[in-house]
Amino acid sequence: MKKITLFFLLLSATLIAQKKVKVDLSNPNATIYTHLYFLQPDSYHPEKAAAVIYDKEGEDAQKIAIKLKKILDGKGLKVDFSKVPTSNTFSDTTGFKPGNRYVLFPYQMPEIFLEKIEGSWYYSPNTVEKVDLLYKSVYPWFTETIQQIIPEFGHKKFLKIELWQYLGIIILALLCTALFYVLKKVVYFTLRKIQYWIVHKSNEKINASLKKLTRPIVLLILSWFIKALLPSLQLDLDINTVIFLVLNIMVTVFWIYVFLKLVQVVMSVYADYAESTHYKLDDQLAPILDNFLSGIVVFIGILKLLTLFGVEPFTVIAGASIGGLAVALASQDTVKNLIGTVMIFVDKPFHIGDWIEAGEVVGTVETVGFRSTRVRAADTSIYQIPNSRLSEMVVNNKGLRAFRRYTTNLGLRYDTPPELIEAFVKGVRKIIDLHPATRNDAFNVEFTGFGDSALLILLNVYFVELDWNKEQESKHSLHIKILKLASELGVDFAFPSTTVMIEQFPEKKGLNTTYNLENDRINRVIDDLGEK
């Protein structure tokens, strides 16, 4: 009785197991599971797997179903059934063509997708038409030939890898090593030619950056080479999945490295260009651009790495946008300063070394950073002005003046004769006309008024040197020449004073200044100015 009971239990379990998996095309999940399940070694029924191919029968449908699985295996694309929809009415709304369709791997293999036809889900007729082309694009032409020449003992397995596959891995590694040294020279030579063709010059810094750029480019080429030949080894799906994941991570890291080095090369070229210009603000822009572009490269690279681990790109972008918005709201001042920095470099209201007046701040611009601008005042103290404020302020850029204007009044004594005033004015005009640091086509020297204790001679002159120190040297030279002219003419400068009339006092005499008004002497003094 026990044996009979055990027999029926085993029979029931067998029947249940057989009925557990059957051909099911009711939804995308069931169709894909039917296709892949019946092509597994322990449940191999290609005639059942062929049911997922629409409008094909017999061996043709079986070959197409087998090739589809090999294409996915060759690319290391493993289906995660927890993410495959189980609804019969599923509609694609991810940005691909709308309708009752499901794309298995929209970013790695968008050509393979399912469609709902006559109430059931099948591989799309478009996919079926492209199977042969996809197979040839995944597997090299010699793949079938390798399978035919491998002896029987070569198919023995160790750790899920056959012996001939171990040999193929070794050969592939040797090929990559040889190609590495060859490509390293070819790529470096090509980069040198491209760089010289673009900028027509080179230096040690640029060459060093190109050498650092060469290695990751070569590794990228080798990664592509490995990914192209690896399917020919027909490794197990789990092994292929791991290898392709590692390769994709390496490729992403290499691309990050390539773009970082490319930024360095571009910044090296830009730095050389900036040095050739007389605008020092261009020199200040180089490190800011370097940091900004490097940050963008790293940010995009991290987003790409996240997608390799199954995170949807749209989810990553949406998360980054929301996170960026949250950070922006939390640091509004920083964002405003960054925008102010951009406006300063775009508008260029001043350059490094310019003397500016911005509100209460007066001084020389030393550096323009991401957040603020540093201005050194005349007393050598430092002003740190946020760029958001500076971009909105009225900036008087003294460094952009075509000339430096100097205006003052020369006060002569009230008892100076008109003849000497005329001679003095004429002499000062000639000094300015002959002075190498002044404009001789735009100046004013005129007797303009009567002051409290002096006759006022207006001196309005323009210095051609824009540097503050040079301006002071020019003033010094001009003042000395004017003093010498006054001494030779016998003209005295007045100073604040009060005159008390004492001529009427007994035995007191007034202070009578005697002026030499001899015309020949005056003319000789004026003429001698051109010889000094």
Word description of this protein:
This protein is α+β, with helices and mostly antiparallel strands and 532 residues long. 55% of the residues lie in helices and 14% in strands. It contains 16 helices and 13 strands. The chain has a 5-stranded antiparallel beta sheet. Strands 1-2-3 form a 3-stranded antiparallel beta sheet, with helices on one face. A 3-stranded antiparallel beta sheet has the order 11-13-12. Helix 8 runs antiparallel to helix 9 and helix 14 runs antiparallel to helix 15. About 3% of the residues have low confidence.
What labels describe this entry?
532 residues, alpha+beta, SH3 type barrels, 5-stranded antiparallel β-sheet, 3-stranded antiparallel β-sheet, 13 strands, cell membrane, MscS_beta-dom_sf, transmembrane helix, signal
Give the distance, in angstroms, between the N- and C-terminal Cα atoms: 140 Å
Low-confidence stretches at least 5 residues in length (pLDDT < 50)?
A: 6-19
User: Got a strand count?
Assistant: 13
Structural class: alpha+beta
Measured as a percent range, the helix fraction is 40-55%
Query: Taking strands numbered 1, 2, ... along the chain, how are they ordered across the largest sheet?
Result: 9-8-7-6-10
Biggest β-sheet: count, sense, barrel?
5 strands, antiparallel
Shape: elongated
Rg over CA atoms: 44 Å
**How many domains is the backbone divided into?**
4
Number of helices: 16
Give the assembly state of these chains: single chain
Order of helices and strands: HHHHEEEHHEEHHHHHHEEEEHEEHEEHH
Portion of residues in beta strands equals 5-15%
Return the average pLDDT rounded to an integer: 81
